Amino acid sequence: MDNPMSTAFARDYWMQGKIAATKDGQITGLWCHTTADHGGFDACADPTKFPAGFMNICTGSHDIPTAHLSVDGVNTNKALGGVAYRCSFRVTQAAYFIECMIEVLAIKLNMDATELRRINFIRKDQFPYQSALGWKCDSGDYHTAWDKALAAVGYDDLRKEQAQRLEDFRAGKTRKLMGIGLTHFTEIVGAGPVKNCDILGLGMFDSCEIRIHPTGSAIARLGTISQGQGHATTFAQIIASEIGLPADDITLEEGDTDTAPYGLGTYGSRSTPVAGAATAMAARKIRAKAQMIAAYLLKVHDGDVEWDVDRFVVKGDESRFKTAKEIAFASYNQAIPGLEPGLEAVSYYDPPNMTYPFGADICVMEIDVDTGEHEVRQFYALDGCGTRINPMIIEGQVHGGATEGYAIAMGQEIAYDDMGNHKTATLMDFFLPTTWGTPTYQADHTVTPSPHHPIGDKGAGESPNVGSVPCFSKAVHDAFRPFGLTQSHMPDDHWRVWKIARDLGLHR
Amino acid sequence: MKLRMAVLSHLVNLRDIPDLQGIEIGADSVSLGAMVTQHELIAHAGLGEAVPLLREAALQIADSQVRYLGTLGGNVANGDPDNDMPGLMQCLDATYQVTGPDDLRQIQARDFYESAYFTARADDEILTRLMVPIPAAGTGYAYEKQKRKIGDYASAAAAVLVGKGFASIAMTNLADVPVWSAEAGVALAAGDREGAVSAALAAIDPQEDMRGPVEFKRHVAGVVPRRAIDRALSRVAG
Amino acid sequence: MSKMHVKLTVNGAAVEGLAEPRTLLIHCLRENLGVTGPHVGCETSHCGACTVDMDGRSVKSCTVFVAQAQGADVTTVEGLVNADGSLSVLQEMFREHYGLQCGFCTSGTITRAHRFLQENPIPTEEQVRFGMAGNLCRCTGYQNIVKAILAAAEMMNAQDKPSSTEGVGQQKVETAE
Ligand SMILES: Cc1cc2nc3c(=O)[nH]c(=O)nc-3n(C[C@H](O)[C@H](O)[C@H](O)COP(=O)(O)OP(=O)(O)OC[C@H]3O[C@@H](n4cnc5c(N)ncnc54)[C@H](O)[C@@H]3O)c2cc1C
Q1: What are A162-200's pLDDT values in tens digits?
Q2: Interface residues on B facing C, Cβ-Cβ cutoff 8 A
Q3: Which of A30, A76, B37, B45 counts the most CB atoms within 10 A of its CB?
Q4: Cα dihedral sign for A365, A368, A372, A373?
Q5: Secondary structure (DSSP) of B145-166
Q6: Is B54 close to ligand 1, i.e. is its CB under 6 Å away?
Q7: Residues C156, C89: contact at Cβ < 8 Å?
Q8: Distance CA B158, CA B53 (A)
Q9: B198: which residues sit within 8 A by CB, 6+ positions away?
Q10: Which ranges in chain C belong to alpha helices (H)?
Q11: Cβ–Cβ of C21/B11 closer than 8 Å?
């Protein structure tokens, strides 16, 4: 009970926005002012040069020529605040902001929000895209993702069903409304390039050290640490595909500062974008040496062998090859002129840019107007994390991240009374969803590899949280849209949803 | 004691007293030991037939693990207004048997609750058994509970029994004691659903908490019993 | 309060010692007996990380005074492995289907799932979700936990056909949800 009262909290943001567009829906400008409660003292680990984190990704997936963002941080008498909770330094807030702005714009223009997005999405051929607030978005194919998502859920039919429901509601045949939440988010993760990302002077590179044993097994040590994201699987797979040793024979060791290379750790979806890149680079150094060893053993020039899954083959003669395992043994046990014995490498990877995962989420929600209760009927989550290393792990991140989003949007709150007493100190009052009521997710994907990452990965841990929070909220907004609701304040727990209905005069 | 807010000199495990155990189904009533768990209420096949309302309500309490340990006695005896069983027992018109140093007495569930954590049980008495009348065959029943999630107490809950010329309604967590209204039962027995709900609402006094402000609770306190009544009516047979 | 002599069986081994009666079973297991499979999450019986099996019932061991466990037969996640120490079918399915991420809730979740599958060997997804609602998980969104349990049920049923499928969870979940 002491823990929820005293642990650092994430976000208590008051965001105000203005958006400008032409009559036919072309967005011309965006303005955002945020008041950010950081509690008793700041508990964030933002890169030093970004005191407001990466809130400036708030132009989202859209080509917006001009934008202005200001953030006032305030201290209050709460516990310490400002933690980046499953988003890379305020990206969830930024996504929430732009997604709500798009929604409001669609209402004002009396346009379908799906079409409004299509008009404004950054086009595939515009990448790399320089955003108005300073980021160089590396890659994306938003239109494809968007169309895939809408088709997957049968969007047009859902809207028809919703229209029928509304008619039934107005005719007094039902007390349940149906809401469809839609988001298309763009994240910024993989911090980051040392030239602009440091934490109190420590550059935000990351690292990997790989040692191949004579037996062909290997150990890799990284500057990150798995908290359940399956690093042992993902990084072993990267090594396995780069140097052709079975993933099962590769041991991962993280978190022991006696042995680990320097690194900045796991947060901000940076492990695979940064340490994963280091892993691939270290593995490539090993493969380069392995090539020389193979050529020597096969008595040909280095350039006469080529890599094939798990071996170097003499070009044009598949019967002459050396497997990675044979090379590992030889590297230690055969004197090779001009080469040191052994097979190991380290890479400190300084990423040239951030990565920009994106995705589309669609939520279908039933809302009981009289009690404020809801049921999430469907949740579709398309993830665009670039190259997909291990689909099961990515989908696990989607399920978990979206469930955290569900909690945040639909009930989670740290509340205080007028005397400053903490009111949500137990897991009964602080909403953590259970198996019952948590949606079953439909995870989907598109693949647009990052052009600057050695294997094209963009990071997957936080995307589902970033996209789902606005998506759940917007399903609520959408249900009440025909009655004039534009926005509401999170979380949409029973009584707040009930209050929306009451304020709109929907109670008898 | 668990939360380290109390230090006691003795701890008596009531589970070792055989008289406090057991579910006995008689001709027109069931006798439930105070140590019968919510799990047992759910699992007992005969009880599910005799008083299906008990099972339906028990399934809406907490989660499987808590129901394996949570007892009927622990739920009704200490007068916690959040608990579901006190209102349920009032709806069912149960009789509590309490035992003190000298004698044994019967208290109607409808007379048992005085205010939050204050009951008609004396300090030197324990609750030993609960007698629940078996509703006439074909009686409709329903337990409706609005809660934020499994593991939460009610924002509003209602227990309803309705049969030929008879009805009973009780509500939970809407005042510092369970709310049972004789007039509500009379109105519903006469087929007046709205009259029943307004009579039941007359007695509530909900407090604001994280589930919502008073006006919200007053509103759902009207919705939940209506739903319970409709469901109970749909189950009336014969 | 003076200490009492407690005797219980933990994962098949008889254990005894002195403990204050109000000591919670979870603390006794972890601190006195070194059985650290069950975890302390919330201590208010919401999270389920401390779930153990006690005399054939799933209980949250933070709701049990050690005095109440006198003479009980307690099984923790450590006790669920096969006789040869290999992972049980259920444990194996959690691994196979990525039914865990950080692992904090896992021991309680698997211990509860173990009992749940005894109560209801052929569950539907809805029954799994209802029967597992006392175990909070912050990582998986439950989807792969549910999948793992359903897969385990299928494999266990293929291994030995149950004689009776009667049980609490077998009856339709009749909540007003
Ligand atoms: C996470 C969680 C969720 C819950 N959700 C719900 C819910 O939704 N609805 C609901 O109704 N309940 C709920 N409960 C309460 C639960 O169902 C139990 O009823 C409650 O915890 C009491 O437990 P117990 O039976 O072990 O009683 P104890 O904790 O042993 O006793 C409770 C009190 O009653 C006294 N007492 C016990 N038996 C007797 C007796 N025979 N005579 C006199 N006094 C006695 C004890 O001295 C103590 O003061 C929840 C509990 C938890 C932990």
Answers
A1: 999 999 999 999 999 999 999 999 999 999 999 999 998
A2: 1-2, 7-11, 13, 15, 39, 42-43, 55-56, 59-60, 62-66, 68-69, 142-145, 150-151, 227, 231
A3: A30
A4: negative
A5: EE-SSTT---SEEEEEEEETTE
A6: no
A7: yes
A8: 11
A9: none
A10: 25-27, 89-96, 106-119, 125-131, 143-159
A11: yes
Contact A440 C47 (CB under 8 A): no
Q: Which atom of ligand 1 is nearest to the CA of B78?
A: 34
Q: Is B73 in the pocket of ligand 1 (CB under 6 A)?
A: yes
Return the CATH architecture of domain B20-133: 2-Layer Sandwich (3.30)
Q: ipTM of this predicted complex? A: 0.95
A346 exposure class (CB count in 10 Å sphere: 0-12, 13-18, 19+) = middle
Q: In this structure, are A384 and A492 located in the same domain?
A: yes
User: Is B11's CB within 8 Å of C133's CB?
Assistant: no
Rounded to two decimals, what is the model's pTM? 0.96
Q: Across the interface, do B148 and A370 touch by the CB < 8 Å criterion?
A: no
The Å distance, Cα B175 to ligand 1 centre, comes to: 19
Q: Over the range B8-23, which residues count as b (16 or more CB within 10 Å of their CB) and which as e?
A: eeeeeebeeeeebbeb
Q: What is the pLDDT of residue C168?
A: 41
Domain-located, residue A299 = yes
- The enclosing domain of A314 has a CATH number of 3.30.365.10
Average pLDDT, stretch A472-499?
96
Q: Which CATH code of 3.90.1150.10, 3.10.20.30, 3.90.550.10, 1.10.10.60 fits the domain covering C4-80?
A: 3.10.20.30
Whether residue B206 has its Cβ less than 6 Å from ligand 1: no
Could you tell me if the CB of B125 is within 6 A of ligand 1? no
The pLDDT of residue C160: 72
Note down the domain range covering A249.
206-349
Query: How does pLDDT run across C15-28, given as a tens digit for each residue?
Result: 998 998 889 999 99
Separation of CA B87 and ligand 1 centre (Å): 14
CA B74 / ligand 1 centre spacing (Å): 4
Before A128, cis peptide (omega within 30)?
A: yes
Burial of A175 (0-12, 13-18, 19+ CB in 10 A): middle
Q: What is the third-level CATH fold of B140-235?
A: Enolase-like; domain 1 (3.30.390)
